[in-house]
Design a protein that fits this description.
Blueprint: H1 8-15, H2 21-34, H3 47-60, H4 64-75, H5 81-87, H6 91-107, H7 121-131, H8 135-147
Helix pairs in contact: 1-8, 2-7, 3-6, 4-5, 6-8
Length: 159
């Protein structure tokens, strides 16, 4: 008997690609709210957390519509400066960056989710799958999801 077990990490990388960019962002938001905000960044003061905070601070200073475009650019791997910076981060730093964005959305410093936004059926099914995972699998799933985002650093692009 032969079967393949896919890790939550690999599943995150595969499943997120089935959603549109805006629905990927919506899913990340719902995961943050559904997990009771129990996903936290690395220990305060950790190098990755400070780097994520610095990138978050750059995004926070932008007008709301530009903040949304930055998130879309990162999710779609657009070749922009912030997307390239994000693409060069470690998986843990990427996770911390999305955590900071979610907190910022909660606090109103980052463009909030539209009040009438609804995840599509595929997104709801994926959210249900995530909710059925244990906490470590949820973190692994999120790590796999955010790892795939961001553009690669390009020679001569400054990053």
């Amino acid at each position: 008997m032969t079967f393949t077990t896919t890790s939550a990490y690999d599943q995150g990388k595969a499943d997120i690609k089935t959603l549109s960019v805006d629905d990927q962002l919506g899913l990340l938001w719902f995961v943050y709210t559904e997990m009771g905000k129990s996903v936290t960044p690395a220990a305060p003061g950790a190098a990755g957390s400070e780097i994520a905070q610095g990138l978050f601070d750059r995004v926070k200073e932008l007008p709301h519509e530009e903040q949304l475009q930055v998130m879309r650019d990162i999710a779609s791997k657009a070749n922009t400066e912030i997307s390239r910076i994000y693409g060069s981060l470690s998986p843990e730093t990427k996770l911390a960056f999305w955590y900071f964005l979610a907190v910022g959305m909660d606090e109103g410093t980052i463009i909030p989710m539209p009040a009438d936004y609804q995840l599509p059926e595929a997104g709801k099914a994926l959210l249900g799958k995530i909710e059925g995972m244990d906490f470590q699998q949820q973190i692994d799933f999120l790590r796999g999801t955010v790892l795939e985002m961001g553009a690669e650093a390009a020679p001569g692009a400054g990053i």
